[in-house]
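Good morning,

Attaching, inline, the backbone tokens for the sequence recovery test we're adding to the shared suite. The designed sequence is right after.
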């Protein structure tokens, strides 16, 4: 009987701690003329034009932010996040955690999460399943796919893709 009561109290305590952690999650807050991320002042943020975009991203008139850090060389006027319905859930064990953030591009650069990738924004397009390409390169979750021909590369579904000469599974050429 005492063990049962102790067990119930322990479960309740753990549940309450979990709820507390969720409510203290990192987020952006605006207070008067200041912007904060996780209670730290963002000294370059403009509170009047600041917008929390979700998933750790935010922007104002001058900068784009990810988890409270300024993303260098990102144009806030052209920066956009995809609609949340298009974000992919992690289904494969080998997919990187950063895949939740996905690809995005500005006028001058292409990014995967907070990492700038070597892609041409004008010809860049997402293919699905973590694959993307520009006129010269193919990418899988932000990493270049070695040996893949961008001109003929197509995503076929379930992690498989192909170009004129080879077949790929989750970004690796099948031998």
């Amino acid at each position: 009987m005492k063990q049962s009561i102790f067990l119930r109290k322990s479960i309740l305590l753990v549940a309450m701690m979990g709820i507390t952690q969720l409510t203290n999650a990192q987020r952006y807050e605006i207070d008067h003329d200041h912007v904060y991320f996780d209670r730290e002042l963002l000294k370059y943020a403009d509170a009047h034009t600041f917008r929390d975009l979700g998933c750790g991203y935010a922007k104002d008139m001058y900068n784009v932010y990810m988890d409270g850090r300024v993303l260098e060389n990102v144009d806030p006027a052209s920066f956009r996040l995809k609609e949340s319905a298009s974000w992919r859930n992690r289904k494969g064990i080998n997919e990187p955690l950063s895949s939740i953030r996905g690809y995005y591009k500005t006028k001058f650069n292409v990014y995967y999460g907070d990492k700038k990738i070597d892609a041409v924004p004008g010809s860049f397009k997402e293919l699905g399943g973590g694959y993307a390409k520009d006129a010269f390169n193919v990418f899988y979750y932000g990493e270049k796919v070695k040996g893949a021909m961008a001109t003929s590369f197509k995503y076929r579904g379930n992690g498989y893709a192909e170009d004129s000469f080879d077949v790929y599974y989750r970004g690796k050429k099948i031998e």
